[in-house]
Amino acid sequence: MKIYTGIGDEGKTRLLGGAEVEKDHLRLQVYGTLDELNSFIGLIISYGSTDPTKQKLIAIQNDIFRISAYLATPEPEKYDLQPAVREEDIRQLEKWIDQTETELEPLKNFILPGGCSASAGLHVARTVCRRAERHLATLNREFVMTKDILIYLNRLSDLLFVLARFENKETGEADVIWRNR
Questions:
Q1: What is the pTM (predicted TM-score) of this model?
Q2: CA within 20 to 30 Å of 145's CA: 49, 51, 57, 151, which one?
Q3: Domain that holds residue 49
């Protein structure tokens, strides 16, 4: 299979099943942003994140890929796709959030993105995740998607935030406190 098709030269791409859409189609906005998120997560892993964080991030990368495949498929019922997100996927993120928070000092201030490399990267990933969530909210108004994907992304951004704090704690870096003049 060739990596290039020439379709993109005209500002179009194909969805799973062959339908051609414009490169700026809402579906592509969502799964393109998820691809960006997945790439940032790979970068964070390469920074040397702690093993507990690394294992979570690898599982999340697989989830994001599955969600992207679902979003790239206009008629998922025609294909043998697993559900994009299951209830247990959301519960797993919530479990990881709750477990990680027990290892952190309670938050008393707003914090700025920063600290160690993995933490700073996780904050970037969190903001990219929020952008994907906003794009998905727009897509849901035009094409009804499963609400579970929106819930998953919302929980994921929360998890990325607590993992950023965890990485700072594990490396001895302090969270960067926001100071209001």
A1: 0.89
A2: 57
A3: 25-177
